[in-house]
Amino acid sequence: MDEQTRVTVTNPRTQANCDKQSYTDYEITIQSDNSAFWLPQSTVRRRYSEFVWLREKLQRTGRELPDMPHKTLFRRFDNAFLESRCEGLERFLQSIIQKKVFLADRRVHLFIQSQLTTNEIDGIVSGDYRYDETLTMAQRKDRTTSTAETDHELSDELSDIEKEEQ
Q1: What one-character DSSP code corresponds to residue 70?
Q2: Predicted model pTM
Q3: What is the pLDDT of residue 95?
């Protein structure tokens, strides 16, 4: 049986942070029957800068990486630009998950299937955080649950883990 994985990047949403600076985030949805993913379906939101972070981390493998849409200071909130960027980010992720070397990287899974920050992902990958208990808890939930529904629990678990280690 062929395993099927579909990843989409859609619904760009522009908003302002606490400093009243505008940014856009993108909805990543993945549907997969590939056992490499711990949830068969999930949806998260990521900023362009987080995609750049993922690409920089994966560059360290020495493997060839797909291109990403370029950063721009002009037209960055233009609808046509945002749609084009969604398509480019989707091609980037689709290419990443097709290569076993990248599919084996925990950063890819945490990026696509959790709301963890890039710093938290780094902490988990480096071993500074233990994520196994949280991952087990997420697996016990209804496996079609969106990661957005488990985020609060994941965040609480990470906070508890950090407190235990201090």
Answers
A1: P
A2: 0.74
A3: 94
